[in-house]
Amino acid sequence: MKKIGLTTTVPVEVLLAAGYTPVDLNNLFIISEDYSRYIDIAERDGFPKSLCAWIKGIYGACVENDIKEIVGVMEGDCSNTKVLIEVLELRGVKVYQFSFPHSHKKEDVHKEIDKFMSIFNVSLEEVEKVRNRLNKIRELAKEIDELTYISNKASGFENHLYQVSLSDLNGNIDTFEEELTKVISKIKERKSNKKKLRLGYIGVPPMTGDIYEFVENFNAQFVYNEVQREFAFPRADKALNIYEQYYDYTYPYDTNFRIKELKKQINERKLDGIIHYTQAFCYRAVEDIVLKQKLDIPILNIEGDKLNTLDARTKLRLEAFLDMLSDLKEELR
């Protein structure tokens, strides 16, 4: 199967039906042992230092791994994607465009997905067949989520890792399904490890993966990973078709639509506080203003840049925030 790079989650069912192996360039970038090399490649090719490290990492991962075709999301994700794909096209990469319409109207979402299917010459029946297959794997991801926030057996990092991997299924549906099945079996054997503080992680998946382990030092655990969970499409089984599934996907649409699901999860998971992660030089950082106004829960905004580990200042801020949450919880007893 031919590889095709993704700048973010797209209707992967269409690509699989067309015989492609999807590769999420974000995952390819961040799991690399020498991830900073991808950023260096982009900067050597002229990308400015004052640009989101994710965009530079995606570019470097695409070039270094000889990805010849990609899907670039023009609406509903990073505003820098438009210029990214222009540069990749200059390098001979074939780019297919997809958009999550800002209007968030059902008919517009329907039209975009139909256009996407037409580009790859696949039928709705073929796509739905793949979707039904993927929904079985999404149920496994949902089980890991429940083992996190209900059973308190899966760690926050495991919750993050296996849900974020649903964007491209690690390049192999069958192998990924087997891996999830084995992981779930092992997690179920553990004893419950309930922490005092129940945290939510919202915003783009972090460059700083050590945040999950760090908070556990303060008797806290992430029991909700917002965007990672959306990548796993936890409500796909309730959608009648692919159009409904991607209409109900909160990440690419307006903040108010996203907030409805956030409020539901805050209550259901009994969260004590939220860490809102944003990336340096990203427009999504401004969303923090809206979120803090509309969510009735303590929120700490932290910002990442090029480092894949937490810096000393961020650790101090996290520690102070967790201490405050702990004190608040004691007062409410």
Automatic annotation (TrEMBL):
<protein>
    <submittedName>
        <fullName>2-hydroxyacyl-CoA dehydratase</fullName>
    </submittedName>
</protein>
<keyword id="KW-0479">Metal-binding</keyword>
<dbReference type="Pfam" id="PF06050">
    <property type="entry name" value="HGD-D"/>
</dbReference>
<keyword id="KW-0411">Iron-sulfur</keyword>
<keyword id="KW-0175">Coiled coil</keyword>
<comment type="similarity">
    <text>Belongs to the FldB/FldC dehydratase alpha/beta subunit family.</text>
</comment>
<dbReference type="InterPro" id="IPR010327">
    <property type="entry name" value="FldB/FldC_alpha/beta"/>
</dbReference>
<feature type="coiled-coil region">
    <location>
        <begin position="124"/>
        <end position="186"/>
    </location>
</feature>
<keyword id="KW-0408">Iron</keyword>
